[in-house]
Write a structure and sequence with these properties.
alpha/beta, 7 strands, TEII
């Protein structure tokens, strides 16, 4: 029964269209606010057979549409780790998160480390501040419940990344606004205070950003790992990663980092 619960849990939580049971490493992707698994799960076809790519699906979207949104970050992180932990103990894994997904991947990695002593071999973050930086704090004070739908929609449009034809459909548009709202609210329940002298990670961290995106505070990542930190700017705005040429750079670079981790 435990096996079937885990299997059903995996199927629900994780989209993995390109299964590679013999892969040396799993790359688990965490999408942006309001996002689903469709784009990042498709990365699977860009990687070689040594890396299996999957994308995490939070409640309230896609096949989990009928489920309530997680009430806070702890709830979301506990669900993700309890379902993933079995698999993550089997073979090395790396995380990739974009924007909101960077913060989720960080929170999941932190929980895995603290509770299970497990750590990704590499953390890839994109379009996000270091979660311990001053720049992350204003996110906490966005009055998300008082913000008008129209303002959220404008912000989603400015960020890009959402095909405009989706925003033509009233139901899809409504649900996207709701999901975005809930994801920001989730982020506001995330508190990370780094303890003095305690460096949580030892893995390398790579930060990717779009050259036209608003600048992110990345320096503070240095305090979060004893591993190496590298920074890359790729041409484009907040959703630079959806450009095919950038996708190629990202997949090649991520592959090289994983292979250099000496699996």
């Amino acid at each position: 029964a435990l096996f079937s619960w885990l299997f059903l849990g995996m199927e629900k939580l994780v989209a993995c269209p390109y299964k590679r049971p013999n892969a040396l490493c799993r790359l688990i992707c965490f999408p942006w606010a309001g996002g689903g698994t469709s784009q990042l799960a498709q990365w699977g076809k860009l990687f070689s057979s040594s890396i299996e790519v999957s994308s995490v699906r939070l409640p309230g979207r896609e096949s989990r549409l009928k489920e309530p949104f997680p009430k806070d970050m702890t709830t979301a992180v506990n669900e993700i780790t309890s379902i993933l932990v079995e698999e993550l103990q089997e073979k090395p894994f790396a995380f990739f998160g974009h924007s909101f997904g960077s913060y989720i991947s960080f929170a999941v990695a932190l929980h895995l480390k603290e509770k299970y002593g497990l750590e990704p071999i590499h953390l890839f973050v994109s379009g996000a501040h270091a979660p311990n930086s001053e720049a992350f704090r204003p996110i906490k004070s966005i009055p998300i419940s008082d913000t008008e739908d129209e303002d959220i929609l404008t912000y989603i449009r400015i960020l890009g990344g959402t095909p405009s034809e989706l925003l033509q459909n009233e139901d899809i548009k409504k649900h996207l606004i709701l999901t975005f709202r809930e994801d920001i609210r989730l982020l506001q329940t995330f508190s990370f205070e780094k303890a003095e002298r305690n460096i949580p990670f030892s893995c390398d961290i790579t930060c990717f950003n779009g050259s036209e995106d608003k600048p992110h505070d990345l320096e503070a990542w240095h305090d979060l790992t004893s591993g190496d930190i590298s920074f890359y700017k790729l041409p484009g705005g907040h959703f630079y990663l959806l450009e095919p040429s950038n996708e190629i750079f990202l997949t090649k670079h991520i592959t090289r980092c994983i292979e250099n981790a000496g699996l």
